[in-house]
Amino acid sequence: MEKFLLIEEAYEKYGKLCGICGARLMGGEAALAAHVKTHTGMPKYEVIEGQSTWGAKRAARSKAKRGLPPSVDVALVKNMILSTPAKSRYKGGAYNKGPLADRKIYQGMPNVFYADGRIRDAYIWVKEGLDIKNPFGTKNPPNARRRLRRRCTVHAVPQPHGNTRWLPSSQIFTEITTNLWTPKKFPNWPKPPGWKLEWPLDPTHVPQGMRQCELCADVGCDCIHTKVSPAKPKIIDAGALGEGVQATVGYSVGELIGELVGELVPLGQYDDGWSAGLIRDDLSNGSQEVCSVYCSYVGNWCRKVNHSCEPNVSFLSMTVSGKWRIMLQVDKAIEAGDSISVSYGKDYFRSSALTCLCVVSARQGMFSEITLSIKICVQTARTFTINHEISPLFKVAVRHLVKPPFLLPSASERPDQRLDCSVLALEPVSSFVPVTDGLAENPALLMSRFGADFKPEFDCLSASLRARRRLTKN
């Protein structure tokens, strides 16, 4: 009993925790990644012994079978296949025909061959490429086909891989490489409008007979790996925006740089801003959203891409390697070190009552607040104070245009509310040194920084600064 308690203690101390099912795994990140694939399946399906599958366990077992024991010489096994009599392969003995017809006694390989000399099914791959002659002769019957029949390589598209184990709720983020579909988690999932296939079904499934990939014409392709950039961007601190994504290499226009993955959930299931709609254009009523990709507790680096009103990438729903996916496609050339941004859409901010904090919105919205604030500064003559809750845009604007700024703590007792409820004050006007001190003489100084679309605001700001100077001199 003590031994089992020690094992349990080791699991709790050193094991990796799966945020999908709650299991603890001994081993590092590789062990956790292999376990997660049992929930999600593989990014592309594999053909194993003539049958295709998304399942990671079956593929792993097949790969293990394909490996001969280390003590077995593969070249010797191939020579045994080409030599006769066949029974010597199992029991051992001499061969009278083939590469081993040298009258030597060879040891048999019962772990590789059956008793009748046939190679075991697990090692059938060893025969690939061997010139095995027909022991009954090579003459064709009179009515034989003159052209050999081409080997059929067509295989059926596998059924979707469904997850069967999950936690009701998870506070642990788990990285995945392909979407997670748990059909029994949402038993009342309504059928999407215009859905022509059976239901319930993985909403990203591409059935047999339909084009499996928009990047090539093959079936069972590897485009999800070969035609998507392998370079992984870096997650960085983006200040007021939280975390963001920075490119580590350059990308060209039209390049696919990643796939947004998460849990497949019904439309409208979550409204916390972590969902993205997946659109299919093969429905009977045209292009429609069929599900949401929810990436709050499962996903990859794509979930950290921030919004921008002038994005350089876009979300694109398309079929790649047998599944409908949300891909990130480059719209503007990206250099190494650039921030990667995408447009969340206007509805995102309307429904969530959030404010866009991107640089473009800050550039467009800061001048109305600054102009009003400069007028207050002129009227009070001593302090630059706004006696109301200050927006993040105004803080960004002041940090760009004025120094030194001071944030005075409010009466709130909660420290985490001080920034949102604080009063922004600057030193008296006599020591108030704006970065835009030369704006009255040269308005283009600031216009060149923020663009010429805001000339009225610049003119108003210039007039306010001139009035402030006159008031200071007096």
UniProtKB/TrEMBL annotation:
It holds the Pfam family SET. Residues 222-345 form the SET domain. SMART domains: SET. InterPro entries: SET_dom, SET_dom_sf. This is SET domain-containing protein. It comes from Fusarium sarcochroum.
